[in-house]
Amino acid sequence: MSTTALKEKLIGQIRLTNDASILAAVSRVLALETSIGEIYQLSSLEKQEIEQGRMDIEAGRIQSDDEVQKEIEEWLNM
To answer: Which backbone phi and psi does 55 adopt, to 5 degrees?
Structure first.
């Protein structure tokens, strides 16, 4: 089926439905498709934070996920 034929078929199906949940789902899928080509630009603060994280890793200032989860659990139980 050609792209044009598929578009016409979908448009026809969209016109026939009154189901808001189906229309919302189609809208979300189409919104995702149009945003895929967009490239996120990091702010200068985000770039600084990433660089700081890299420096922390190189200096050995890291914690395992288990250590972080334990620390969070302790904070929540205070």
So the answer is: -65, -40
* Location of structure tokens 């189609």: 26
**Nearest-angstrom CA–CA distance, 24 and 17:** 11
The pLDDT tens digits for 18-41 are 999 999 999 988 887 766 667 778
Which tokens sit at 43?
Answer: 């702010």
Residue 12 contacts residue 21 (beta carbons within 8 Å): no
- pTM confidence score: 0.43
Q: How is residue 70 written in tokens?
A: 């334990």
Check if the beta carbon of residue 12 is closer than 8 Å to that of residue 4.
Answer: no
Query: What is the distance between the alpha carbons of residues 27 and 61, in angstroms, rounded to a whole number?
Result: 45
Q: Which amino acid is at 49?
A: E
CB 50 within 8 A of CB 42: yes
Judge contact between 26 and 14, C-beta under 8 A: yes
